[in-house]
Amino acid sequence: MGKLWNRHQARLLLARWQETYDIYAPVRMPGDGCFSDTDTVRYGLIDSLEEIVWDQKSDYSFKEALLPISETLFYFTDDNASVPEAPKKKRLIFLRSCEMNALRRLDQMYLNNGPEDFYYKRIRQDARFVLMGCDTPFASCFCASMGTNTCEGYHAYVHPDGDRFYLDIPDRELAACADGLAAEDASQPVKSVTKDAVSVKIPDALPENAATLDLWKDYSSRCISCGRCNFVCPTCTCFTMQDLFYRDNDHGRAGERRRVWASCQVDGYTDMAGGICFRKDPGERMRFKVLHKISDYKKRFGYHMCVGCGRCENICPEYISYTECLNRLDAAARSSAEGGEQ
């Protein structure tokens, strides 16, 4: 049982939360879209309730609120190195059910896949998450097929209802901020969607020739290797390192090392010493990404890496359909099981 808040009460609660937390949510950024005179919706630091975009899926995922696109790991000189201070405030992040499930994938890679990542952990351990209810699936969403339309572990749940907001706050720290604010008891509205925007079938088992199927060749000429699909994905975790040398000092012998998002779809990602490159062709890189999302990761951890948010499909400038690729892969698997060829 939660409570129904009017807009004024919700504003007061948000203001109280802001005393302790930097609050991140989907916001509209005018003129920042891929095409001329278009907007984008991505995660940003908010000051007011009115900034939050409720009725549209964000073009970029929540992960940049936890994992900066470019993050300084340490500063260095000839004799010393120092780690930047941690953020002074905790973070409160509004997200969808698929993204709450994606958080499990990020935690798996940065906290449980070997030694804990110091930089990720110090932000993650103080973060709180507010689940945003979904009434209907957004374009290209297939979270129901991936089992990520429901989730656990959120600290508060919010669902807009006209000019009012349904709020359920199981977290004691967040709930304490609501003390003294009058709100009426209300029954919980529908928390998650039950059907997908597109029909997607993930193959139960891949055919033995999955890596050499002809379908991958179709992407060799279409994919331009821009990497946007990886950058908007809430579960992609790859990065590269960059050293920035300052020039306003003695011989430029001081600087900083940064961790920067990287993409397995970009040419040169797998380059090694000696001129070795494992995946030179865009079709090969597409194959690697898809099989990793719905097969390789699951073999290792027991659940799919993909959460069905559909952002990769929405952002692609070449209109490559990730969901269609999955369905073609499933068709190839069924054909192989029946003794046919693909």
TrEMBL record:
Keywords: Iron, Iron-sulfur, Metal-binding. Residues 213-244, 297-325 form the 4Fe-4S ferredoxin-type domain. Pfam families: Fer4_22 (PF17179). The keyword Iron applies. InterPro entries: 4Fe4S_Fe-S-bd, 4Fe4S_Fe_S_CS, Sulphite_reductase_A. GO terms for molecular function: iron-sulfur cluster binding; metal ion binding. It comes from the Bacteria. This is Anaerobic sulfite reductase subunit A. The gene is asrA.
